[in-house]
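Researcher: I need the complex structure. Ligand is FO1. Inputs:
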Amino acid sequence: MILVLAGGVGGAKLASGLAAALAPGELVIAVNTGDDFEHLGLHISPDLDTIMYTLAGIANPDTGWGQADETWNFMASLGKLGGETWFNLGDRDLATSVLRSHLLSRQSLSTVTAEFCRRLGIVHPIVPMSDQPVRTIVDSDEGELNFQDYFVRRRCRPKVRGLRFEGAEAARPSPGLEAALAAPDLAAIVICPSNPLLSVAPMLALPGMREAIGAADVPVVAVSPIIAGQAVKGPAAKLMGELRMPVSCVGVAEWYGDLLTGFVIDASDAALAGEMDAKVLVTPILMRCDADRLRLACEVVDFAALLGRNG
Ligand code: FO1
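Model: Output:
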């Protein structure tokens, strides 16, 4: 069984490739909830929704978030009434957040997520990283911002000085994540090409998470979210620069440190392979279509198996 740590758009693409390559019992997808926030009285879980919609085949292919074939009547009426319209909730997407918010009053985020996946016909397990609240707070030159304020309302313009994950010290890995880490048939942990600082760091900030990964004693393989010094999508490159990290796949590998057994970088970064401690797989990692996602997923699984055999 492969445990996947995923967040954001890059995470959803590789997770969908892995879901196409592996049977339901061979995959558990743990998703970042650091981007979650309360908005208009709703609990919104952007990364869970992006992964769910992607595996259900209803994700918006252009934006990387929300659903395809959306209508925007809710937003139009919200604006007329003077509601905040900086965060766009499509009419279909809205139903997810309204029902999740209603159910969370008496069910865990894990339970709600499992029920939504069942209803959407998703057969691979998707679990939140935690059922307790963890919120990414961005310390910037405009003060402290919650993640969505920084990412959407301010469009990542503020200069970032630091990040913290509010609530992480009091949170626990979700039951599904804990079970996957302790599973006797756990063969590898795959870290998706998500922003390490924003989408993976919250998961690693959960108490005992790094120790549990180490104790699992299986290959840990990450796919670089940076290709030739550029982020495929989102603010990873800008953030890494502002936090004084080398804006390259080497910078990402250094950030993960000895957590990694293997690292997957793009063919365009082949010359950098020698600068890393982890074992490196060099291959095209830009996922432009389903075939790319499946191919990369298979290569990552084979690479992890190879690392597992070589001890
Ligand atoms: N991102 C935007 O840039 N603009 C939006 O209006 C927006 C709305 C939105 C609604 C639901 C949802 O699940 C995600 C949404 N996102 C939007 C993306 C979201 O901020 C990011 O997906 C994650 O938080 C970062 O990966």
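Model: Summary of the prediction. DSSP finds twelve helices and 14 strands in the chain.
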